[in-house]
Amino acid sequence: MTALPRNVPRTVPSSTDPHALPQVRWLRSSYSTGANNCVETARPARGPFAGLLAVRDSKDPEGPALLFSPESWTGFTAALH
Asked: Long-range contacts of range 23-32, CB-CB < 8 Å, 24 or more positions apart?
């Protein structure tokens, strides 16, 4: 599993910050019930975190987002199965 380099932050204080996560599209799982009790993911194509995966709590859409390398997220989700 590839971890983020030490100099890359692992969180963004606000997932709606247009400088940190410009023009991202947040997605929910197709299994989501719409009760806002899930996580949402986005893949920034531009900006300082391009190429990483951002994850936020759907109950707090303006709150922080966690950042993962694609490999780390794949490993995490594979471990859940």
From this structure: 24/54, 26/56, 26/61, 28/58, 32/58
Summarize pLDDT for 41-59 with one digit per residue, the tens: 999 999 889 999 999 998 8
> Cβ of 38: how many Cβ atoms within 10 Å?
14
pTM for the predicted model, two decimal places: 0.83
Gap between the Cα atoms of 19 and 35, Å rounded: 29
Give the angle 70-74-80 at the CA atoms, nearest 5°.
Answer: 150
From CA 76, how far away is CA 8, in angstroms rounded?
Answer: 19
Cα 22 from Cα 15, distance rounded (Å): 10
